[in-house]
Amino acid sequence: LGAARREAQAETGRSKPARAVIAGLTGLIPLLGGLLYLTLGSPGQPSAPFAARVLPLPPSAEDGEMVRLVQELETQLASRLNDIEGHILLARSYKNMGAYDQALPAYQKAVRLEGGNDPTLAGEYAEVMVITNGGQVPPDAVRLFTLINQNIPGDPQATYYLALAKAQAGDLSGAINDLEDLKAASLPNAPWRPGIDALLEELREDQATRRETNQ
Asked: Which residues of 13-49 are buried (b: 16+ CB within 10 A; e: fewer)?
């Protein structure tokens, strides 16, 4: 009831232009529940977004309408510092535009305002950490993905990135086992299956190469 009341108060206090901007941006941003992106690529190399393979391509940074709405939202949020919905939308807009360096601090603020209770938002934030870190999974992202996996065991996004972190730390066998378990628990047409298969193939090749080198 308290949360509903706060939302009603926020909506009442939000200007019509602000509501229009939020509605416009929400319509431009594709969402896939708790799994917006997975990344492909070898453990030591920058990764490419997987979302384009499971979703229509998001608007590009050159999309005039997207850019215009984001700029309007930025202006409005300058005087609405505690607008949770607005800051979350701004972070997601940056991410969908590929403006990851801007998305990172935006997600940090959005997660702080939200209170860290939304695993989807936390996963998006951790994923942007990986992207801005050249495909390497940093410790803060590992911590967030671990918390997500503790609350949602087997979460595909968290499991994938934790396996990638293991591989980057040299634990290829552990990473392969985790990915095989994730694959076995996933439906054949799950949108993240191609990403799992691609990473498994790369890790197995790397593992075979290391074995040959050590012989």
From this structure: ebeeebeebbebbeebbeeeebbbbbbbbbbeeebeb
